[in-house]
């Protein structure tokens, strides 16, 4: 059975809602809650296009005049997802900081909580709920809250290591949704339904005492030496493979002395025994000569367990330039000849 009645059931999210949502992101309408969108639609301040998405009425009847979600490569969306300073579209909800390092917490007292700031950039009230596993040493308080429009909420990130001499790392998730979506009765128009937003905080810490040596990492790192050459102004990507060959957990984080002209995802985390982690790295090459990029991975919270990785990148000079029609013509060759 269900835990709600037909009169109080929440709005059901369907694939069409996601298609509308992407269009509304491009048109800046996701910052308005469904009740405001319904009012604007009823007052003729908004209208629906041929696909059912909302738009501002224009004198031009063609749908081509309304913004649409641009064609963005998956890698670009992955690296510019709004968790850093650069984003393709401004996030409706954000949290700072997104990475927290508690460092050494040998006890017996628990470390002081770390303050978090959750910001609601929308024009509607949102509800935020944090997920939490009972065996996770990290958690956020309050675990559920409501944030008014254009306001922020102070939260606390806690860390309680249950065992001494252990490494800990986790990714905490929170889901934010417009409060009016908690009841299906508040939805007047189906096209105003908005999916929830996921917020993540990466946290890590350990309970080793200063006199004890951290476990020696046993791993292999497969890293290419070169980025693919690309045209001027284009990003270049590569992947790296980290394998934990040991019988203990392996933590990693990108050291602060790494080159600032590269982006590594994920920049911190934990690898289970005999498991692996795939990294994606991005840079924007400059110049036709090879340029070196140095970055450092620190393992198991120990400065002496530092791995230096060196890669090179460059722009690729144009060898062929097409005319405005972007077509190439090959003359028909004679038999036995090549063109």
Description:
Helix content is 8%, strand content 34%. It folds into 2 domains: 15-206, Immunoglobulins (Immunoglobulin-like), CATH 2.60.40; 219-313, Sandwich (Immunoglobulin-like). The protein has helices at residues 15-26, 34-42, 74-79; strands at residues 47-48, 54-55, 93-96, 99-104, 114-120, 126-130, 138-141, 144-147, 152-159, 167-178, 197-206, 219-222, 236-244, 250-254, 262-265, 268-271, 276-283, 291-299, 306-313. It is flat, with a radius of gyration of 25 Å. It has a 5-stranded mixed beta sheet with strand order 4-11-10-6-8, with no helix packed on it. It is built from 3 helices and 19 strands. The chain is mainly beta.
Q: Quick one: CATH superfamily of the largest domain? A: Immunoglobulins
Strand count, sense and barrel status of the largest sheet are: 5 strands, mixed
Q: Strand arrangement, largest sheet?
A: 4-11-10-6-8
Radius of gyration: 25 Å
How large is the count of helical segments? 3
Mean pLDDT: 89
CATH topology of the largest domain: Immunoglobulin-like
Distance between the termini: 71 Å
Tell how many strands the DSSP assignment holds. Answer: 19
The CATH top-level class label of the largest domain: Mainly Beta
Quick gist of this model?
It comes from Neovison vison (American mink). By secondary structure, the chain is mainly β. The chain is 8% helix and 34% strand.
List the helices and strands and how they pair.
Elements: H1 15-26, H2 34-42, E1 47-48, E2 54-55, H3 74-79, E3 93-96, E4 99-104, E5 114-120, E6 126-130, E7 138-141, E8 144-147, E9 152-159, E10 167-178, E11 197-206, E12 219-222, E13 236-244, E14 250-254, E15 262-265, E16 268-271, E17 276-283, E18 291-299, E19 306-313
GO cellular component, one term: cytoplasm
GO biological process, one term: sperm axoneme assembly
Protein name: Coiled-coil domain-containing protein 108
